[in-house]
Amino acid sequence: MPSYEKEISRFEGLNTQVLGISVDSVPSHEAWQKSLGGISFPLGSDFYPHGAIAQKYGVLREEGISERALFIIDKDGIVQYIDVHPIEQQPDNEEIFKVLEKLQ
């Protein structure tokens, strides 16, 4: 998420809305973004019912956490790109920008 904040003007230049969603609570989101000095894009809490969004997208683990997943959804609500990778790995922003540029 911090890397998306650093690139927010580039996302905006591609007419893209960044949205973060996690299974954490709203208070934990608030504390997390304060620890980063704030972020400019919305964070959604998939806390209650716990993991409902993650489950619908197929990325909720049995232990109640979600995979680190990235979805690019176009203006018509169609998922155009999915990247699910190990939680300890950061997704490659350049790959994301390549996909976004193709959708323009």
TrEMBL record:
Q: Which domain of life does the UniProt lineage start with?
A: Bacteria
Annotated Thioredoxin domain residues? 1-104
Q: Which GO terms describe its cellular component?
A: cytosol
Instruction: Give the UniProt record's GO annotations in the biological process aspect.
Output: cell redox homeostasis; cellular response to stress; hydrogen peroxide catabolic process; response to oxidative stress
Q: Which UniProt keywords apply?
A: Oxidoreductase
Tell me the Pfam families matching this sequence: AhpC-TSA
**Gene Ontology terms for molecular function:** thioredoxin peroxidase activity
Q: What function does this protein fulfil?
A: Thiol-specific peroxidase that catalyzes the reduction of hydrogen peroxide and organic hydroperoxides to water and alcohols, respectively. Plays a role in cell protection against oxidative stress by detoxifying peroxides.
Question: Which family would the database say this protein is a member of?
Answer: Belongs to the peroxiredoxin family. AhpC/Prx1 subfamily.
Protein known as: Alkyl hydroperoxide reductase
Organism of provenance = Desulfuribacillus stibiiarsenatis
Taxonomic lineage is: Bacteria, Bacillati, Bacillota, Desulfuribacillia, Desulfuribacillales
